[in-house]
Amino acid sequence: MHKFKDLETVILTHDIKKDGLREGDMGAVVMVYDGGKAAEVEFVTATGRTVALVTLTSSDVRDI
Predict the structure, then answer these.
(1) 26 pLDDT exceeds 70?
(2) What's the whole-number average pLDDT of the chain?
(3) How far is CA 46 from CA 26, 27, 50, 58, in A?
(4) In this model, does residue 25 exceed pLDDT 90?
(5) Which value, in Å, is the radius of gyration of the alpha carbons in the chain?
(6) Residue 43: closest CA among 1, 4, 10, 2
(7) Is 30 left (phi over 0), alpha (psi -120 to 50) or beta?
(8) Rounded distance, CA 62 to CA 26, Å?
(9) Which pLDDT does position 17 carry in this prediction?
């Protein structure tokens, strides 16, 4: 089971259509919850514009 750490980079394992995210998108952990079991992850464009800020669990991501 993945345990989130502040500021780590993660890869999305599935699409989240309502937020415009696709499997393989890279995001940065900005806040960790429940001892690392969940996290707020920010996804940005190459120019730095935020696309989505979503709460994810370990089953939603993989390491780089």
Answers:
(1) yes
(2) 93
(3) 11, 12, 10, 25
(4) yes
(5) 11
(6) 10
(7) alpha
(8) 10
(9) 96
